[in-house]
From TrEMBL:
The name this protein goes by in its record: AMP-activated protein kinase glycogen-binding domain-containing protein
GO molecular function, one term: protein kinase binding
Any Gene Ontology CC annotation: nucleotide-activated protein kinase complex
Source organism: Opuntia streptacantha
Pfam families: AMPK1_CBM
Homology family: Belongs to the 5'-AMP-activated protein kinase beta subunit family.
Domain (AMP-activated protein kinase glycogen-binding) ranges: 22-100
Domain of life according to the entry: Eukaryota
GO biological process: signal transduction
Length: 104
């Protein structure tokens, strides 16, 4: 009636922990021509191009799958790094400020 138990020895997926991801929408509502998102969840090396939001000419969005926990991120707006002053943020070494988000 049921297929093989994935936790049973010998099953191809036995012993693999399920990775929990949380689809998270990031929004930059302050305008710009090209907006990218980067953060701890991309290793700070990937820059995700954000899409204009339909019906909101100054807003951009991107949806990313995050693992549970705290993540820091920033927006690159027309070549300038920005953080969202209206969301929680942290100040790091050398005056670096990043927006912070708890995925749960």
């Amino acid at each position: 009636m049921f297929g093989p138990n994935p936790d049973s020895p010998g099953h191809p997926n036995s012993g693999l922990a399920a990775t929990v991801v949380i689809p998270t929408r990031f929004v930059w509502p302050y305008g710009g021509r090209r907006v990218f998102l980067s953060g701890s969840f991309t290793g700070w090396s990937e820059h995700i191009l954000m899409s204009p939001m339909e019906g909101c000419p100054n807003a951009f969005q991107a949806i990313c799958n995050l693992t549970p926990g705290y993540h820091q991120y920033k927006f690159n707006v027309d070549g300038e790094w920005r953080y969202d002053e209206h969301q929680p943020y942290v100040s790091g070494n050398y005056g670096v400020v990043n927006t912070v988000f708890l995925a749960r």
